Amino acid sequence: MKGYKPTSLLFVFCFLIVMSGCSPYTENNIVEEIAPVIFWSIKNDPNGQLSITTLVPPLIKETKQTFTLKVDLIKQGGKEFNLKYYRELKTGQLRMLFINKELAFKGIRTLINTLFTDPDVSSRLYIVIVDGDFEAYLKNQLSKQPSLDYFLYRMLKHYEKYNQGDMSIVNLHEFMKQLYSPFQDPILPVFKADKNNFTYEGTALFHGDKLKTTINNMDDQIFQLLGNDRYVKLLALPKQKLVLGRVRSKVEFRLDQTTKVLHVTDQINGRLEEYQGNKNLLNQSELSSLNKEVEVYLEHETTELLKNMQKEKVDPLQIGLLTTSPFFERMTSKEWKDQWENIKLDVHFSLKIQPVTTGNKM
Amino acid sequence: MIIVIIGIGFVSQLNLFILSKCWKSRFLKDGAEGISKLFGKRMIRLYAFIGLFFIFMKMAIFTIGYSDIMHQYIFPSINNNWLILFIFLTSLYLASKGMEKTFQFVVIVMLSTFWIIFVFIPFLFAPMSSIHDLYPLIPNDPSLFSWKGVLLIWSSLSGPEYLIFLKPWLTHDKRQFMYFTIGNMISVLEYLLLFIAAILFFGSNYLSKTLYPTIDMIKYLQSPVFERMEIIVISVYLFYIVFALALFLLFFYGLSRLALAKWNLQTTRKGYLFCAAVILSSFLIFYNFLWKFSYKGFWGLDLEIALSSLSYLIIPIILWIAIKRKEDV
What we know:
heterodimer, A: alpha/beta, 8-stranded mixed sheet, 10 helices, globular, B: mainly alpha, 72% helix
């Protein structure tokens, strides 16, 4: 029996090699011959086709170039790139998907589904809506910033990891969950692109898979406080001439089903980081009057934001989930949408500012 | 559904109580000899024939289901027949070491797969999940209640009934019922955890649209070193699959000897290999001509669920009745 041991070990070893993909039956994954795709940028074309762009080659020392193709189907894009580039494109490293805003207005369900069913694509793929000409930005920026695609990925990754409330970052799985949930509408970040800039603009609110409206500036900050991160690193209030830092919000939504009123109470804690107004903040009464002013302003803005959501019939804050209860049947998605429009709002903010500045007035 | 899982756990507990009663009986100690005293030789042959079918279905669904997952997530371009062959050969090797070695392997299986349960705990506290996703706890709508779901959970708890056939190799312990209870509790808790985590992660609507939710969940996990966690977890499950398959392979061989009335003769390598060849070729036929074409609405899955539910329900009861009748006489 002892003499068989080396032979059987050799057999096991052969099996292991065959199993681990060195067999003639697997796909070609030789590093020198493939080019991993890091992002797709997809926009619609006037004549009904899709225009799909990516950057090749990633990660090796070769001048990068943008490739753009006009195709009818998304996967067809992947196929046709291979016909004009000497490396084979692989989607295993796909990290970002940039979708043009016009395309998002038409609905992106099939687009997302195609990527979702690809076993190579991770569900941590970031989805971003782009307003403007992203290809022009790519072409222009590429000369200054060779690993542009990687930097964009790091940026999204950073803001996802440290939920600072600066950006709403959404990945494929979160989008899918929101898309299929009967009581929640998906959100995506919107970036504005032109030849020289690529900047975060705000949050896109969807109804189903169609873009409805985008919110930006003040509205987006409030949206971060209410739902997304419940934390904003810097809350700038230009009208009150002050900036609050490290703002933490403790939101409570209470939906009164009989009177159809949504009570929103939000406790906000923050440091006063900058003040350019002319109140003496060392004086307690002036400080509390400023406090009141900010509260009223935030209440007003929040009510406006929620009203806007009601008008557009979108519910990205999962208010609909409040109608569910442990022992009663859920209402249908449509019933909720009809109800959501007519719900009255009652918003209360209570603000706790820690004054860390000395008074501006001497 | 949470209530259903807990309820079925209780019923299973009752079933295990009966099983532990049977366990104490002296008939089981002698293996096939003892059981044949209970039922008579003619009946044993009939039962063995039926049992062959039960065990074959269980093995087939186990292996093909697992190789299908492997195919879909790890080796999309390799031919699935190869995967089935490799899994089968591994368990054939394990089973050839004999019954004792095979179920000693359970220690390795336990150590290498038990940690997977803990992987799902972070999903309970994920920021995007809300407790409202679980509501309503008790669905009032009768159309949502499905017998198939109940059967699925019941069949997932099945398996302990096969322990009876291992009795001759196991030590005789008084605390058998306690061990059964612990095992049952762990299984029920595991299913509860998986169910709740999956609902929180996907939400109920999206959950019904995914084919392998637990693997998709593992896929979502991230580690700084290794990105595709699901590859590790799926591969680790191979230990479990190989163990179960090897055990059933031995059962199959034993039962076929019973069915052909050859159980007084010594076991032979030729017979064992013939048995294995029959099983492997039936797997491949099963996969290539039945499974491949009717993927999701496949009757084989339903049949397997029904069969293992049935075996879990009736084996303890039949044995118990038989033992009671013999002991009265």
